[in-house]
Amino acid sequence: MAVLLLLLLLAASASADGNAFIGANIGTDVSNMPNPTQIVTILKSQKILHVRLYDADRAMLLAFANSGIQVTISVPNDQILGIGQSNATAANWVTRNVIAHYPATNITAIAVGSEVLTTLPNAAPVLVSALKFIHSALVAANLDQQIKVSTPHSSSIIIDSFPPSQAFFNRTWNPVLVPLLKFLQSTNSYLMLNVYPYYDYMQSKGVIPLDYALFRPLPPNKEAVDANTLLHYTNVFDAVVDAAYFSMSYLNFTNIPIVVTESGWPSRGDSNEPDAKIDNANTYNSNLIRHVLNNTGTPKHPKIAVSTYIYELFNEDLRPGPVSERNWGLFYADGAPVYTLHLTGAGAVLANDTTNQTFCVANNDADPKKLQAALDWACGPGKVDCSSLLEGQPCYEPNNVVAHASYAFNAYYQMMAKSTGTCDFKGVASVTTTDPSHGSCVYPGSGGKNSTSLNNTSLAPSSSMTASGCLSQYYYKDGFFSSFVITIGLLHLSALVL
């Protein structure tokens, strides 16, 4: 189901007040790409105040003028050799792409290339020179304090990333990394790092649990522990970021912060990528946003913010390669969200469903026992009118627990005015913008003529049961009623959505 997004993104500046921010990358391999003005409109409607461009497109930079959006621009990889060998070329690039637009367009950083060491190694010898020449041009324009200069790295330059305390950079690149880190330190800049737990999970061949990659809660005995530091890791993201911190300290650099320039999860994939799906993309990005905006940092640096740019704003349908390459986006090219993020307590959050037509449905891959328990609660203590699920009624078919639970979950969600946290049911439900109504079964909230009305009274005890057990066992089994209410009732008091 096309579950779709609820993006947020708040207004904090990491350099200004120590708070982490969430931003979005904007790739352009998109057919029917929105024009720059439309893109800015989408960003502002979602309160996305931090973006990263993979170039310095003039039309985009003009559109960002006076928008309040902070922009990281990039020197494309194919320009690094020229800039890295000529101070004048670098100065011209800054004049054309920075000075011509600043301060109307709030350019806050320049990313020189992208994963140069691993994708364009022939440019590696001049990478640091390119950074220095760009920075010198900023100094000449008196903009070096306002605009940072760095270069994004793939996390694959880190060898043996777990345990983090034993991680180190691939020594092949030390002749580049050491002067690069000296430059970042001397200019008060930050290490740009691309972190993809999806690929770490895929390449581990089952060693990394999916829950660990998705930020899902783990029991203490399942947390990864660094035996050298006794630090506990509950997710891959933190472990990789700390591996980078330890790798820098191995080279005697201990005060360079990290900004994650790319992280995300694909919503679709080929048959050999079964975990590239909407539910996992939703879970990863929702948990990532919450984790970053909580300002918890990492186990090694719990008080240091790790601002992160989600990869990416749009699905890039023109990208070559596997299906997953074209499905990392939060939005389709027409501005419709791909799925709705599960977010609570994460700061300023707006739904990107401008029509407010959202529904709550059961996750197809949810544990049937958990679905049944949540369905029992919705049709009981939740005070949902489940009479439409009885045999012979409009929503009886399809007669299975997923379909019946979807109806009951949505009825509760609509009855609670779509309040935050009312579409979760302990992780077995999620929000969608696709109307799940079918045939004569009209879901509450769809606006259909036969939309079922809701009430706030419990159903009378009944022995009538659908095959899914909708009119559930709690009606006449007090022991189950008590234990279930304690478990599920707390759900709606929790700030956690997953």
Please describe what this structure looks like.
The structure is a single chain. This protein is an alpha/beta fold. It has 15 helices and 15 strands. The strands form 4 sheets. The protein has a 9-stranded parallel sheet. Strand 1, helix 2 and strand 2 form a beta-alpha-beta unit. The two termini are 18 Å apart. It is found in: Cell membrane.
Relevant terms:
498 residues; alpha/beta; TIM Barrel; 2 domains; nine-stranded parallel sheet; two-stranded antiparallel sheet; 15 strands; 30% helix; disordered N terminus; disordered C terminus; GPI-anchor
What topology emerges from the helices and strands here?
Elements (H helix, E strand, L loop, with lengths): L13 H4 L4 E5 L9 H10 L4 E4 L4 H6 L6 E6 L4 H5 L2 H13 L6 E7 L3 H4 L7 H14 L7 E3 L1 E3 L3 E2 L8 E2 L4 H13 L4 E4 L2 H7 L6 H4 L10 E2 L6 E2 L2 H15 L7 E6 L14 H16 L14 E3 L48 E4 L5 H11 L22 H15 L13 E4 L45 H12 L9
Parallel strand pairs: 1-2, 1-13, 2-3, 3-4, 4-5, 6-9, 9-12, 12-13
Antiparallel strand pairs: 7-8, 10-11, 14-15
Helix pairs in contact: 5-7, 7-8, 13-14
